From TrEMBL:
It comes from Hypericibacter terrae. Keywords: Thiamine pyrophosphate. Transmembrane segments: none annotated. This is Transketolase. Residues 1-165 form the Transketolase-like pyrimidine-binding domain.
Amino acid sequence: MRNKFADVFYELGKADPRLCIVVADISPAGSIAKFRQDFPERFINTGVAEQIMIGMTAGMAQRGLRPFAYTIATFSLYRPFEMVRDDLCYQNLPVTVVGIGGGVTYSTLGATHHAQEDVSIACSIPNLSVVAPCDPSEAAAATRWCAAQEKGPVYLRLGKAGEPDFTAKAPEPWEFGRIRMIKPGSDVCILSYGPIMKRAFAVADRFEAAGKSVAIASAHTLKPLDRERIEQILAGFKHVVVIEECAPNGSLSMRVQQIAWTSRAHCRLDTFTLQDEFKHCYGSHDDLLDEHGLAVGAICAQLGLT
């Protein structure tokens, strides 16, 4: 997903001289390194100075540029939080803040690099749109939208590397602000976003082995949330499942539960999130998800699938 973002950004940057990128103490790789080489005047590395990274992009946007702030998710959102809120969101500037490795992707680097509550925090800031693609194809579509939009600031939450492509042949196109079906079905609907979509598909396989027809929906835009489509899903399926790599408070799961209550939905609703705690577990991304109770087997056990 990270490499796809870089490839698309480079191609867009060749055509649009307003596009520029400001990073904070990360080594550019792939097409971002090529962007630095070909357009050095549009690439800035602030070093360990994330607050300056955000403040700089605000000024660049006011001068008519279309800047992207790009670094690991905890350092693109948490460390410069005041600047994201006041410099970008208060002034409603068209800056894209790219958070690489959302959730617990940077597993072995510990809690300082775990952005398990990033979606919750970002969704609470006025004017800030939040987009979290589930695979390289959605990352490409989201990057193109971010580069062209003039709506205001965006938090673009990306995975890191190695994500399968689930949506290249999806029956519905990617559209900002719209939940889309990426797999048709009639009995159960699974809502998910981000790299954990891989586990949503694994759970769907277990449902189908039990004779159920399973739809999967990508909730790639967390803010503004597509409430109308969620209401349709809650009304149209007997069983709805939400699987996400986010802390429970302020999560998609919490908002779907609220919508289910206010719309008087009658379906069964199960939600699965990261737990509200720091996990003292050293291991891979999969190990951390398992430790948070998001192992496919653990999810299936709670759903009554053996």
